[in-house]
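Q: Hi! First time asking for a complex rather than a single chain. Here are the components, and I think there are four in total. Is that enough to go on?
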Amino acid sequence: MTARSSSESARDIPEATVARLPVYLRALNALADDGIRTCSSEELALSAGVNSAKLRKDLSYLGSYGTRGVGYDVDYLRYQIAREIGVTQDWPVVIVGIGNLGHALANYSGFRSRGFRVVALLDADETRHGEVVAGVDVRAFGDLEEIVETHGVAIGVIATPAGAAQDVADRMVGCGITSILNFAPSVIVVPEGVDVRKVDLSIELQILAYHEQRKANVT
Amino acid sequence: MTARSSSESARDIPEATVARLPVYLRALNALADDGIRTCSSEELALSAGVNSAKLRKDLSYLGSYGTRGVGYDVDYLRYQIAREIGVTQDWPVVIVGIGNLGHALANYSGFRSRGFRVVALLDADETRHGEVVAGVDVRAFGDLEEIVETHGVAIGVIATPAGAAQDVADRMVGCGITSILNFAPSVIVVPEGVDVRKVDLSIELQILAYHEQRKANVT
DNA sequence: CTCAATTTGTTCTCGCGTTCACAAACTCCT
DNA sequence: AGGAGTTTGTGAACGCGAGAACAAATTGAG
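A: Yes, that's all I need. Here is the structure of the assembled complex.
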């Protein structure tokens, strides 16, 4: 299943490591902005908020990009991580659902600066079609196929109410979208081969509430 | 460290389980809305998008709330989970940073319906003070102490740009806030005893991009 | 050139979480 | 009442990730 014919990047990077690579990349960018050209695993780990042993192990999955006795070249490592994640290229993204959250996402500058380009905002509400939000056209949900095909979109973002999420996901999958970021508070089912990541705002708060309650209960 | 003097809820629930309890709660609410009064672990697991064995083990940490041969009483289980998480009570929350994301969070109905009440929106921008967003007063960041004390706030949400996040966190901790939900794309450092959860929108997309790239590379 | 100091890459061990598999408990039908 | 059929709760095995610890590689001083 994980056999790769491509000669490079054939390593199988653990999921936990993949989730931390963007954090390292951000830390490296911050260091570069400060004019720092070289850093040790200890320093980088501090910036990223992780253990240095973990950092080194994570980086070792990518290859040997450090120099013993010296550390890592910030620019070089930055490029290597970006390439591994795939953010050296430009990823077109569609956002469905132009409520408060869709608005916020469309305006979020962090997407663009990290290689993601919002090519369209889709909504079922016809009265909003033709509007321009954050420099992006608001279009009809029915235009999804056309937009996906024209721009070669592989990543879709769901920012609709819970009730619409599964329908939207089905349509996205039907168009050939293979990665979905779901902000709707509902579980969506997709075929094998499609990746879904879920961000649920109220769940995060509930987890905090659980711990908060326990703190209070230690009498 | 985990010794509890309180007689009930003395069990130590694994972190991974805690993170899933809100999902189960949501699934149970959906079932209840459909008029379903009883469900098996298999059915509930399907709604929640998990394995039924995992679901049963998770629930077993709370106690034996099911009936063998029958399943779980939806209302009863719902109450037990809600009580365990702590969402039977009302949690006052402050949001700092009234940008696009702060706006979206303030308007998010999912908070209120789950026991979280936004008591104030704070922002450094003086021109916005006195405004009312989503029925909540926009106040000066300097009012943090007063608001936290008045309402007994234990949970704070950071929705500022990255540069301000650490300062805001420090102030929050200084006021006695012990749980922080951080949407700013930066690592924040807090003292022992303070819980931080981080939601980073662009990191989620980068993780998707990594997998997307790998799919494309399987030639 | 040699040796001390530094820092990476990797091996090893431990603990947590997931999953399987099954005994225990309950219902319902005859 | 008894037995077949369900479904929970949990013991045990397994796999992954975290962290400690160390060997290998590099630098720089004398």
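A: Chain A is about 45% helix and 20% strand. Let me know if you'd like any chain examined more closely.
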